[in-house]
Amino acid sequence: MRSPGYVPNTAQRRLAEEVTRFVHGEEGLDEALKATQALRPGAETKLDWKTIETIAEDVPSISLQQDQVLNLSLLDLSVRTGLLESKSAARRLLKQGGLYLNNNRIDSEAKRIEPNDIVDGKVILLSAGKKNKMIVRVS
C-alpha cells in the first residue's frame, strides 16, 4: 500500500543528482538536468546542438550528407539510420504516436525532412518511443 504523496523513483533521482554533482560539480549537474529535460519526447524546451551533443556518448549516432537527408521521408530516415527495422514498423509506431522528430510527435506519413528540421544546421534527433533515440549528424 502506497502512502499519499508517494512519487516513484524520488530517491533514485536524488541519488543520481548527488552523484552527478559530486563528480561533475554544480555546473555539470545543471547541464545534465537541462539535457535530460530537453530530450524527453514532447518536451517544451527548444533543442539546440549543444544539448544534443551532451547525450551523444549515450545515444547511437550516424553521419549522413545533407543531400541524403533533405526531402527524405521521416519513415525512410528512421529505417536508413537503423532506429527502426522497417517502414512497416515505422508506420505502426507513427500511428501509435511514438515517432518523434526533434522531440516533436509526428503523425503524418507524408512528413519529409526540411532544412529547418536540422537543429543548428548540424543534427537531427529521432526518437522511437521515450527511450530509443538516434542522433543524425548532418554534414
CATH classification class of the largest domain: Alpha Beta
Q: List unreliable stretches of 5+ residues.
A: none
Let me know the largest β-sheet: 5 strands, mixed
Tell me the fraction of residues in β-strands, as a range. 15-25%
> Rg to the nearest angstrom?
17 Å
User: Under the CATH scheme, which architecture of the largest domain would be assigned?
Assistant: Roll
Overall pLDDT confidence: 87
GO molecular function: RNA binding; tyrosine-tRNA ligase activity
Domain RNA-binding S4: 73-130
Keywords: Ligase, RNA-binding
InterPro entries: S4_RNA-bd, S4_RNA-bd_sf, SYY-like_C, Tyr-tRNA-ligase_bac-type
Can you walk through the features of this model?
With 139 residues, the chain is α+β, with helices and mostly antiparallel strands. The protein has two domains: 1-38, no CATH class; 46-138, Structural Genomics Hypothetical 15.5 Kd Protein In mrcA-pckA Intergenic Region, Chain A, CATH 3.10.290.10. Helix content is 40%, strand content 16%. The chain is built from five helices and five strands, in the order H-H-E-H-H-H-E-E-E-E. The protein has helices spanning 10-38, 49-54, 66-69, 74-80, 87-95, and strands spanning 61-64, 99-101, 104-105, 123-128, 132-138. Strands 1-5-4-2-3 form a five-stranded mixed beta sheet. A hairpin with a 2-residue loop joins strand 2 and strand 3. The longest helix is centred in the first third of the chain and has 29 residues, at 10-38. The mean pLDDT is 87.
